TrEMBL record:
A biological process from GO: dTDP-rhamnose biosynthetic process
Species whose genome carries this gene: Phaeobacter porticola
Protein's job: Catalyzes the epimerization of the C3' and C5'positions of dTDP-6-deoxy-D-xylo-4-hexulose, forming dTDP-6-deoxy-L-lyxo-4-hexulose.
PANTHER family referenced in this protein's UniProt entry, alphabetically: DTDP-6-DEOXY-D-GLUCOSE-3,5 EPIMERASE, THYMIDINE DIPHOSPHO-4-KETO-RHAMNOSE 3,5-EPIMERASE
Name the UniProt record assigns to this protein: dTDP-4-dehydrorhamnose 3,5-epimerase
Active site (record annotation): H62, Y132
Enzyme's top EC category: isomerase
Catalytic activity: dTDP-4-dehydro-6-deoxy-alpha-D-glucose = dTDP-4-dehydro-beta-L-rhamnose
Keywords from the UniProt entry: Isomerase
Amino acid sequence: MILDQLPLAGAYNVRWSASRDQRGAFGRLFCAESFAKAGLVSQWAQTNLSRSSARGTLRGMHYQTAPFAETKLLVCLTGRIFDVLVDMRPRSASFGRWISLTLDGALGDGVYIPAGIAHGFQTLSEDVMLHYSHSHPYRPAHQAGLHYGDPDLAIDWPLTPVAVSERDRALPCFSRVTDDLQKERAPQ
Ligand SMILES: Cc1cn([C@H]2C[C@H](O)[C@@H](COP(=O)(O)OP(=O)(O)O[C@H]3O[C@H](C)C(=O)[C@H](O)[C@H]3O)O2)c(=O)[nH]c1=O
């Protein structure tokens, strides 16, 4: 796999550099040694599989709060998604900035999402399957998120969102969440 730094510090596009032959293709999605050498998380507490049926399905924006803030390695297995990362790290130069990238299951595209980043995606095709590796276990009490339609973030979703969960519809806007985070940014 090939790690390409993204505009948010510590985030990477993880490209599947497969060996191809007459049978098809084979390649690594993750390597503890390579990830540790690159200073990335190299141990996972949990993996998840996410399946979305309809084109336009929107999930997010999610993150876990401390002490269960999690790093994620997401790999697109089938279909295509518009993937979005929002920097929630109070001391980051890109605090409050969002970036997007398209992940294609046919290419085995992945993204490495460091702790402190809110993550969400919208499917660009039907029948999308994603594989998640999480650095920390799931803790419902530490589940947090941002509203995908936050006017301050103005995330440029490519399609009209469909199949948004009630939980995601009720998530707060960035300005409400960051009041506390801004206090963290203030010089000590
Ligand atoms: C993450 C997780 C969820 N669940 C349960 C909780 C809900 O009853 C159900 C669906 O969870 P949720 O609605 O959070 O699933 P998504 O909306 O797809 O969230 C996921 O997609 C967004 C974009 C992410 O980045 C999150 O890391 C990931 O949680 O599975 C578990 O039982 N274990 C788990 O580890």
